[in-house]
Structures are given as C-alpha cells and as structure tokens.
Design goal:
Layout (H helix, E strand, L loop, with lengths): L9 H15 L19 E7 L4 E7 L7 H14 L15 E8 L3 E3 L11 E6 L2 E5 L9 H12 L8 E5 L1 E5 L4
Antiparallel strand pairs: 1-2, 1-3, 3-8, 4-7, 5-6, 5-7
C-alpha cells in the first residue's frame, strides 16, 4: 500500500486493498497521514464485475460509517469481494479478470415525486417503514424511474403495492484505467 498518494483513483485503491487482503487474509495498513482527498467522509459503494459486465459483488454504505474515505473504500472493497451474500467469495486467481468501480455518494435528498428522479443522473433510495433499499444511478438495463423504484423496493423487501418515501443522490463514479 505504499503507492497510495495524491490523485490515486479510488478504484485503484480498492484493487490494491483486495490484492493485499486476498493474498494475506487481513486488511492492509493505510498510510498515515492520508492524502487530503481521502480524509473526507462519504457513503461509498464498490462494485466488482466480470469482463463481460456481469456483476460479481457490490457492497456499500449510503452514508459514511468510517473515519475517512480511504477506510470506507477499503472495507467496502473487501466486503464486496468476500461478503456479498449473492455470490461466493472472490478468489485471488479471478481478481485480475474483474473490473472494479467505486461510487462516492453525494448528499441524499428527499423528493416529493418520481418526476424529480432520473435513473441516468440520480441514484435512488426508497424507505418504507423500517426497510430501505438503494440503487446506484446509470446502471445497464435500468432505463426508467419505475424500474429503479421497483428494483429498490425488491432489494428492501418492500411489496410492489406498498407506499415508500423516495430519496435521490448523485455519485462520483471511479473506474480503473485498463491499458
């Protein structure tokens, strides 16, 4: 992890963390002090996809739960690789074949109508009772607000006819630069 420095893409940080974790079985030591851009706090989602675009793991937090962005990226990268209940853990051997993206979430704001949503521009969070579900923006195959709401409700375990509160957010998405 000694290569972490100013301007390091969060997706590259996620890969470095995963390489260390899958090789050694523990979290790497993050540098101290951190570069200034990693000292902020925000919700972060890390997505792992196979080269054909098929999802292999995605875990995140809709708001900051760790001390800084570097920790948020690191923990969510490991969780996406080995703790996403939809998939078996990622092996060290398959890591080179995976594409990693990191979405850093902006503020979440309540909306009064689905007319204020756009699946290309905004991620969505639905809340019904004590259940909530979140879907990132600009996902392949999600072309309408209704699809976005339906998927978010299913993720939350909220029935199709149940009323929900709607929230939106923007993300800054970082992908790896593949040579």
């Amino acid at each position: 992890m000694t290569t972490l420095g100013p301007g390091l893409n969060p997706a590259v940080l996620a890969r470095q963390v995963l390489e260390h974790y899958l090789e050694n079985g523990n979290m790497p030591q993050l540098p101290d002090p951190l570069p200034p851009e990693y000292e902020t706090r925000a919700g972060v989602f890390v997505s792992l996809k196979k080269s054909g675009g098929e999802l292999r793991g995605c875990i995140g937090t809709f708001e900051a739960v760790r001390d800084n962005l570097a920790e948020e990226v690191a923990v969510n990268a490991v969780n996406a690789a080995v703790r996403d209940p939809r998939f078996p853990p990622v092996s060290r051997a398959e890591l080179p074949e995976l594409n990693i993206s990191v979405d850093i979430l902006g503020p979440i704001e309540k909306v009064n109508s689905k007319d204020e949503l756009d699946p290309r521009k905004y991620g969505i969070m639905v809340r019904g009772g004590s259940c909530s579900g979140l879907l990132l923006p600009d996902l392949e195959g999600v072309d309408s607000v209704d699809q976005q709401i339906d998927i978010s409700k299913r993720k939350a375990g909220i029935g199709p006819g149940e009323k929900v509160e709607l929230f939106r957010f923007k993300v800054t998405r970082y992908g790896e630069e593949k040579g």
